[in-house]
């Protein structure tokens, strides 16, 4: 499709056909928000067409014309659209596109997460539209303490370029909000697969730990226990909770101007998280006390030895000092039936999906 097909479109979405973007598009169409114009990089156009057909075929009263795929790129002025003026009727913009990769190069993270968000902000302001911006809890960096929706600029350090550039992007959004831009910010914690099916399209974050376990003998699998791990929490939420929460909160006028942390209010300590994952995989584990520098060196060796993709940057989350709270989210979702399921209730589905789908990669969609 071309941009001229979107002349009467009121909803615009970036981040399709990504993991969260695909699920959110389905929720928006199901509640009658179509047609939705989706910005798609040319290299992902065929994937986008396939996923759009799968979504529309599964929804009653929705057809192909309710999803309008527009070739473009958030890193370019006017989002790389041939005729951005054809989207002047857009009133709601959902910005999900980002580089979700802990090991991302600085320049790429800067171009997509910061520069791309600036371009989306310009697009939104030119149309007087409302923005729904998907940030991350990890704008906290390594903040030492409890981080809530009210926190942002705390002088924190960052684990990686992903965190730092997402922080700077949210700063830009909040500055525009302070100047009157109608926007809502959603900060997911670490997002894993669907709690009902285990489905995911990218093995990153906790999946590195799971794949490390599965590559070792079930009778004894080794994990790392760096200093500080005993007091750290691993805040994990499934995709269905995240998209259900965004779909619910974005449909309310009173959510304009709010920040919502989509995190687990009762996350597992790292050691307990590893035990639950190991139990679901049927593995007996031993946590080896070690420094992070030694663990990184060993991880790089294990990649070749075990022939499994691992990301050394994940080790920084085994002693992460930040705890996340979500009072605004809990108040807003009270009575809605939308809540974070305990990790223990769906860990087995995540493990089963990985075992049945070993070829899913950890590449970011950029």
UniProtKB/TrEMBL annotation:
GO terms for molecular function: alcohol-forming very long-chain fatty acyl-CoA reductase activity. One of its GO terms (biological process) is long-chain fatty-acyl-CoA metabolic process. It holds the Pfam family NAD_binding_4. Residues 13-246 form the Thioester reductase (TE) domain. SUPFAM superfamilies: NAD(P)-binding Rossmann-fold domains. InterPro entries: FAR (IPR026055), FAR_NAD-bd (IPR013120), NAD(P)-bd_dom_sf (IPR036291). This is Male sterility domain-containing protein. It comes from Natronobacterium lacisalsi AJ5. The lineage of its organism: Archaea, Methanobacteriati, Methanobacteriota, Stenosarchaea group, Halobacteria.
């Amino acid at each position: 499709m071309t941009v001229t097909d979107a002349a009467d479109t009121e909803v615009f979405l970036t981040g399709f056909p990504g993991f969260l973007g695909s699920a959110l598009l389905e929720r928006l169409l199901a509640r009658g928000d179509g047609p939705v114009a989706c910005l798609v990089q040319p290299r992902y156009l065929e994937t986008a067409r396939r996923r759009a057909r799968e979504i529309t075929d599964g929804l009653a009263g929705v057809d192909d014309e309710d999803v309008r795929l527009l070739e473009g790129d958030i890193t370019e002025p006017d989002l790389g659209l041939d005729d951005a003026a054809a989207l002047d009727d857009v009133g709601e913009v959902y910005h999900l596109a980002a580089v979700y990769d802990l090991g991302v190069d600085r320049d790429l993270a800067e171009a997509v997460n910061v520069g791309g968000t600036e371009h989306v902000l310009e697009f939104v302001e030119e149309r007087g539209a409302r923005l729904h911006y998907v940030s991350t809890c990890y704008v906290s960096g390594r903040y030492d303490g409890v981080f809530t929706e009210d926190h942002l600029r705390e002088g924190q350090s960052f684990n990686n370029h992903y965190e730092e550039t997402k922080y700077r992007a949210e700063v830009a959004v909040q500055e525009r909000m302070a100047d009157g831009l109608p926007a809502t910010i959603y900060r997911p914690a670490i997002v894993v697969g669907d709690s009902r099916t285990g489905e995911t399209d990218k093995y990153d974050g906790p999946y590195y730990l799971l794949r490390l376990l599965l590559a070792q003998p079930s009778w004894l699998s080794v994990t790392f226990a760096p200093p500080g791990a005993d007091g750290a929490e691993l805040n994990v939420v499934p995709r269905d909770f995240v998209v259900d929460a965004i779909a619910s909160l974005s449909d309310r006028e009173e959510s304009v101007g709010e920040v919502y942390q989509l995190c687990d209010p009762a996350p597992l300590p790292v050691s307990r998280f590893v035990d639950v994952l190991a139990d679901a995989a049927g593995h007996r584990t031993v946590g080896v006390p070690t420094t992070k520098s030694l663990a990184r060196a060993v991880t790089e060796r294990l990649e070749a030895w075990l022939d499994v993709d691992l990301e050394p940057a994940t080790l920084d989350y085994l002693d992460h000092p930040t705890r996340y709270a979500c009072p605004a989210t809990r108040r807003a979702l009270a009575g809605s039936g939308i809540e974070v399921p305990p990790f223990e209730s769906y860990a087995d589905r995540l493990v089963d999906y990985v075992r049945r789908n070993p070829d899913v990669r950890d590449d970011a969609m950029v």
